[in-house]
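wait is this the right file?? whatever heres the structure
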């Protein structure tokens, strides 16, 4: 009798982001635009504003490569906030590759509403097997997506493969601090359907082994605790509203899980920042 194949990390990621509760949470609390960690300028700054600042800081790393006619590949593009920002700011063309069709549907609709569908193309697919030829893109971009990879080396190899010579890879990700045992963070990351997080040193070694140069890491780990405190505050403040949008059980899980991220960050068990490197 045949057996169903075991679920993959791609299945888990797709299931997580296609869930109605998750979709509603990111839309209501994060703003449904830039769903990643923010860089905060003020204590009680809006999460959406801090998240957009992260996009701006990452984009500043590659301004020399972005202009009308240049091409960007956004891996794990979510609802498309960064893709739209890059297209509007630089006039470049962005291919947004993302595994969640629920997110992609909203992404396409928003692009049309903002008149950016001519510059931003949304493609459903996996960054483990990028459907584009070698040396295709000036910039490969990603934010808090590689943490979902079941094979990080393969994902980064694919990202480098499609970069043109002298192109840039710029990304942010949630990482474990070097030396933190996987089991310590398992209760933290389990809500995301993730088993473990890579470390900054693993990223550096892997990127160097793939032939990338000028591997820079702007460490903004100090922002993590603040970010998850803000998420917890917003969820508490809007709890009654969220219980009308999201199943009560998921709200309860959020209120239990989000403080764990803040605690892990305070105990320096997590790392986060902007990686920027170039292909020779």
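ok assuming it is, sequence goes like this
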């Amino acid at each position: 009798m045949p057996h169903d194949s075991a679920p993959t990390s791609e299945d888990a990621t797709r299931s997580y982001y296609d869930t109605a509760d998750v979709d509603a949470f990111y839309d209501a609390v994060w703003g449904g635009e830039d769903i990643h960690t923010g860089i905060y300028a003020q204590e009680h700054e809006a999460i959406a504003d801090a998240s957009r600042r992260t996009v701006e800081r990452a984009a500043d790393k590659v301004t020399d490569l972005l202009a009308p006619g240049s091409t960007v590949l956004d891996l794990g593009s979510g609802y498309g906030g960064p893709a739209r920002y890059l297209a509007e700011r630089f006039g470049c063309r962005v291919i947004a590759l993302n595994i969640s069709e629920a997110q992609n549907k909203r992404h396409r609709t928003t692009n049309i509403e903002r008149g950016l569908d001519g510059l931003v193309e949304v493609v459903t697919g996996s960054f483990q097997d990028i459907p584009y030829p070698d040396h295709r893109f000036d910039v490969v971009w990603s934010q808090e997506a590689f943490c979902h990879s079941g094979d990080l080396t393969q994902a980064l190899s694919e990202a480098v493969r499609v970069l043109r010579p002298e192109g840039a890879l710029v990304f942010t990700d949630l990482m474990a601090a070097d030396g933190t045992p996987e089991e310590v963070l398992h209760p933290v990351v389990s809500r995301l359907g993730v088993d473990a997080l890579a470390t900054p040193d693993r990223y550096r070694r892997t990127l160097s082994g793939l032939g990338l140069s000028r591997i820079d890491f702007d460490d903004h780990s100090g922002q993590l605790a603040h970010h998850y405190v803000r998420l917890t505050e917003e969820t508490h403040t809007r709890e009654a509203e969220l219980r009308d949008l999201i199943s009560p059980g998921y709200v309860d899980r959020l209120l239990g899980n989000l403080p764990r991220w803040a605690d892990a960050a305070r105990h320096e068990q997590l790392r986060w920042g902007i990686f920027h490197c170039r292909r020779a």
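The radius of gyration is 18 Å. so i think its the right one actually
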